[in-house]
Design brief:
mainly alpha, two-stranded antiparallel ribbon, 13 helices, 2 strands, about 0% strand, globular, binds Phenylacetyl coenzyme A, Aromatic_CoA_ox/epox, Ferritin-like, Ring-1,2-phenylacetyl-CoA epoxidase subunit PaaA
Length: about 300
């Protein structure tokens, strides 16, 4: 039997009303949102690292300026999302602590290395492409601050995706070695990109409740299918081969059939054992430790100022 307060809440959600920070909400709803929004924020922050790796080595001044702007956008998205999570009653320090201790997750995709310049194109095209597919429906999330944050973020992600595709367009029209570099990037990033949508629906523990609360609008498999359907023609346009022998157009369903991602690899990466997990987390912890003198300075100043006012 559902508690009357909870029933009234569910009715508002069902009617498509937005839930705002100071309103009553079930504890589970609050916790789920804190988990998802903070993980999303952490993904944006950690997601700066693989691309930041190429800022000093971008092939032209123009490419460098564009990449710099993209990585700055990601920092902005992270801060924006931390603010949205703070409206649920968690502090930023707590969220950082959860990231640094390994309690909170961030997207599996950022635990893979960026080996060549084509990887920067592939990230924009595939990783931002997958992020958009996932985030456009989140603009209609039942929690107001998260839904509104998604509007601007999705606009910027669209620019990011185009810049990635543009890098690859240029490279596939270049030398044979450049084209081979693009194919190699697709081979390495294709399956990890499909894994961004999370485990298959039957293994997704949170989906049913999150969909009932209209935090998620679509299941993981639905979004993965839409991503494949959108991306395969783009790969063909670039003259590339998607590294999936089971990929085949299915006329009846009006979409592609495709192979299973390696779920063992996925669970291994989210458990902290992917190729770059330790490196990524260490970079974030180092940044936190390097900022200690500054946080201490702020606290000391605030204490002195309070003393002066008190005196
Ligand atoms: N990676 O029951 P479900 C970007 C976890 S990048 C890591 O299906 P849920 C921009 C999941 O948290 C992308 N962990 O969970 C960018 C849960 O573990 P928990 C960031 C994953 O929440 C581009 C467990 O597995 N976007 O935006 C992953 O219903 C380029 C069970 O899974 C978002 O975060 C994964 N791939 O659905 C930046 C979108 N998948 O929490 C820089 C918001 C699942 O119990 C460069 N998030 N897990 O410990 C979501 O939409 C959802 O949270 C899902 C997962 C779809 C990721």
């Amino acid at each position: 039997e559902m508690d009357p307060q909870e029933r009234a809440f569910q009715e508002r959600v069902d009617a498509g009303q937005k839930i705002e920070p100071k309103e009553w909400m079930p504890e589970g709803y609050r916790k789920t949102l804190i988990r998802q929004i903070s993980q999303h924020a952490h993904s944006e922050i950690v997601g700066q690292l693989p691309e930041g790796n190429w800022i000093t080595r971008a092939p032209t001044l123009e490419r460098k300026a564009i990449l710099l702007a993209k990585v700055q956008d990601e920092a902005g998205h992270g801060l924006y999302l931390y603010c949205a999570a703070e409206t649920l009653g968690i502090s930023r320090d707590e969220m950082y602590e959860q990231l640094h201790s390994g309690k909170a997750k961030y997207s599996s995709i950022f635990n893979y290395p960026t080996l060549t310049w084509a990887d920067i194109g592939a990230i924009g095209w595939l990783v931002d492409g997958a992020a958009i597919m996932n985030q456009v429906p989140l603009q209609r999330c039942s929690y107001g601050p998260y839904a509104r944050a998604m509007v601007r973020i999705c606009k910027e992600e669209s620019f990011h995706q185009r810049q990635g595709f543009d890098i690859l367009m240029k490279m596939v029209k270049g030398t044979l070695a450049q084209k081979a570099m693009v194919q190699d990037a697709l081979n390495r990033w294709w399956w990890p990109s499909l894994m961004m949508f999370g485990p298959s629906d039957d293994a997704s523990v949170h989906s049913a409740q999150s969909m009932a609360w209209k935090i998620k609008q679509n299941s993981n498999d639905e979004l993965r299918q839409k991503f494949v359907d959108q991306t395969v023609p783009q790969a063909e346009y670039l003259g590339l081969t998607v590294p999936d022998p089971d990929l085949k157009w299915n006329e009846t369903k009006g979409g592609y059939d495709f192979g299973e991602p390696d779920w063992e690899e996925f669970f291994n990466v989210i458990a902290g054992n992917g190729p770059c997990n330790a490196e990524r987390l260490n970079a974030r912890k180092q940044a936190w430790d390097d900022g200690a003198w500054f946080r201490d300075g702020l606290t000391a100043h605030a204490e002195k100022a309070a003393e002066r006012h008190g005196a």
